[in-house]
UniProtKB/TrEMBL annotation:
Organism whose genome encodes this protein: Runella defluvii
Keywords in alphabetical order: DNA-binding, Phosphoprotein
Residues recorded with modification 4-aspartylphosphate: D55
Domain HTH LytTR-type: 131-231
Name of the protein described by the UniProt record: DNA-binding LytR/AlgR family response regulator
PROSITE patterns: HTH_LYTTR (PS50930), RESPONSE_REGULATORY (PS50110)
SMART domains: LytTR, REC
Location of the Response regulatory domain: 4-115
InterPro entries documented for this protein: CheY-like_superfamily, LytR-like, LytTR_DNA-bd_dom, Sig_transdc_resp-reg_receiver
GO molecular function, one term: phosphorelay response regulator activity
Claim: Methyltransferase is one of the keywords in the record: no
PANTHER family linked to this entry: STAGE 0 SPORULATION PROTEIN A HOMOLOG (PTHR37299:SF1), TRANSCRIPTIONAL REGULATOR-RELATED (PTHR37299)
Lineage: Bacteria, Pseudomonadati, Bacteroidota, Cytophagia, Cytophagales
Length: 238
């Protein structure tokens, strides 16, 4: 499995160093190199990213600020010249924290932590962090955390990720049976939505972080209110 990696650092020399480190590691695939959090945010919405290697102190938004803004974010390795950021960064649960100047051997240790984290059994997906979809003669691996939503259409299921849609011959009910955790929410008889991909819930729709609207079925309204909003509501307006 290749780990799709995005680098963010406002220093061109460190961007070059980190790019070389990534390219020297066969388990990593470099998706993009960015100099700001704003640029990175755009790339994150366009690409499937498994790992974010991110500087902390940047001129527009800090690396910690960016991590907090990502509802369905990738794993993170923070890199910085400032030891004092170590405690602050752990509120967003990074995989590791690297001090500059960077050492390749130490970098490899961090990547091994990432690899083990991706392959470990998560709490919410009971069987595996990934599944396979048959595509012609090939089997494509899809990470659960990259899925935005799933849509049933006749005998097929459209599994939608940021940059690809897989369409296996599978019923949505059968897929829901395999999802024994609570990561995905049934919002309509034809739709399953990844909870962390939800940005807004209106009377009639679920609006995702990429702007897509998913209709809410009448029979699912109470369940959405109870299971997804429920105890997570911290304020009421009006």
């Amino acid at each position: 499995m290749k780990i799709n990696t995005l680098i963010i650092d406002d220093n061109p020399n460190w961007r070059l160093t980190l790019s070389k480190f990534v390219e020297m590691n066969p388990v990593l695939k470099l998706v993009a190199v960015c100099e700001s959090a704003f640029e990175a945010y755009a790339k994150l919405t366009e690409n499937e990213v498994d790992l974010l290697i991110c500087d902390i102190e940047m001129p527009d938004i800090s690396g910690i600020g960016l991590a907090k803004s990502l509802p369905n974010g990738p794993l993170i390795i923070f890199v910085t010249s400032h030891q004092e950021y170590a405690l602050d960064c752990y509120e967003v649960s990074p995989v590791d924290f690297l001090l500059k100047p960077l050492n390749f051997e130490r970098f490899l240790q961090s990547i091994e932590k990432v690899r083990k984290r991706l392959l470990s059994q998560p709490e919410d997906i009971s069987l595996s962090p990934y599944f396979f979809v048959k595509d012609g003669h090939n089997y494509e691996q899809v990470l659960y955390h990259n899925v935005l939503y799933m849509k049933a259409q006749e005998h097929f299921l459209h599994i939608v990720t940021p940059n690809h849609t897989y369409t296996p011959m599978l019923s949505i009910s059968k897929m829901e049976e395999q999802l024994k955790g609570d990561v995905f929410l049934r919002v309509h008889r034809s739709y399953l939505v990844h909870r962390l991909a939800i940005a807004t819930i209106t009377k009639d729709d679920v609006i995702l972080t990429n702007g897509e609207k998913i209709p809410i079925g009448d029979q699912y309204r109470a369940k959405i209110s109870r299971q997804h909003i429920g105890g997570n509501l911290i304020s009421r307006n009006g």
